[in-house]
Amino acid sequence: MLIKNAEALEVMENVDTLVVDKTGTLTEGKPRLTVVMAVPGFDEEEVLRLAATLERASEHPLAAAIVARAGERSLALTQVTSFQSATGRGVIGEVEGRPVAVGNSRLMEEQAISLGELAERADALRGDGQTVMFVALDRKAVGLVGVADPVKDITREALRLLHQECIEVVMLTGDDRVTAEAVARRLGIDRVQAEALPEQKAEVVKGRRVVAMAGDGINDAPALAQAQVGVAMGTGTDVAMESAGITLVKGDLRGIVRARHLSRQPWATSARSCSSPSSMTFWGCRCRWRRGCCIRSSACCSLP
Ligand code: ADP
Ligand code: MG
To answer: pLDDT (tens digit, 9 = 90+) per residue, 161-191?
Structure first.
């Protein structure tokens, strides 16, 4: 666990709500492609090839899942032109001179692409907790891909510990509502805010009481900065870590409960109230405490 400043630890003690990102925070953040579907008269392999060709230009973990499967099937990917990434929605571009879009219902709506029977198929997959991305060619939906991202082994235990501390957990995600609710139901999380764009994520955090926000993505950074205490996953992006007061190096949410326990330790209280520079070592970590801050190299203290 990396604690950037003592204030973060202090606030953690009083936190009553944890707003938590789904992908990469509750889940592994390593989605795997489970299904490819094509509309009648269109080939599944062609749906995958078009999607992977476009997604090769994206850095999103969902894109990586699609590209990986195309690689396993040895599909020949071509060049993309006019590539554009639409945050929280998907990607668009041209493949062999024809417009291609891969993304969620919101992206398809914006592109005035009707989903037809694919909408129903999508809901069945979402009900199973999968993320669905539609694939469109020439502004017509030609298929979809389903992606599953397993919940981390430690997530259930972490949620149990958080509930024991009387912390309310709210899941916050850019993913579809049906998918988010299916995952939340499995985990016993009763409050869900889905289909949230990065700025909306920050709004959710703003309106609450003593709130901690845990996330890993670039899209979580505004909310991490807005929360009274931001908790980044060390397994996530640098931007998230820069925006947060605490980083859980291995992405283990149980660290939040540990941070609360630490903040109640007598040494933490005395260190926070210490105004003159002093020095202390604990768990092999040598720190200097000054003006309420634990300073170790770049203003950071590492606890196991
Ligand atoms: P999260 O909050 O789960 O990290 P994001 O804000 O990154 O989610 O993305 C929200 C949704 O936008 C995804 O569930 C997906 O439907 C869509 N999306 C984002 N990036 C891509 C992409 N590269 N290709 C297709 N769809 C994408
Ligand atoms: Mg995430």
So the answer is: 999 999 999 999 999 999 999 999 999 997 9
Ligand 1, residue 85: give the atom nearest the CA.
23
The binding-site residues of ligand 1, defined as CB within 6 angstroms of any ligand atom, are: 21-23, 55, 58, 60, 62-63, 88-91, 102-104, 131, 133, 173-175, 217, 219
Cα 262 to ligand 1 centre (Å): 35
Of the bound ligands, which one is closest to the alpha carbon of residue 152? 2
pLDDT score, position 209: 76
Residue nearest to atom 16 of ligand 1 (CA): 104
Give 15 Cα–ligand 2 centroid separation in angstroms.
21
Which ligand is nearest the CA of 224, by number? Answer: 2
Phi, psi (rounded to 5 degrees) for 205? -70, -40
Is the distance from CB of 290 to CB of 2 less than 8 angstroms?
Answer: no
Query: Between residues 41 and 207, which one has the greater pLDDT?
Result: 41
Per-residue confidence (pLDDT) for residue 269, from 0 to 100: 54
**Backbone phi, psi, residue 136, to 5°:** -120, 140
90-112 pLDDT per residue, tens: 999 999 999 999 999 999 999 99
State pTM to two decimals: 0.84
Q: Which residues contact 105 (CB under 8 A, 6 or more apart)?
A: 115, 119, 122, 134, 176
- In the chain, % helix, strand, coil (3-state, to 5) comes to 40, 30, 35
Catalytic residue flag (residue 21) = yes
**How far is ligand 1, taken at its centre, from the CA of residue 200, in Å?**
14
In 64-190, the DSSP E strands lie at: 80-86, 90-95, 98-103, 131-137, 140-148, 168-172
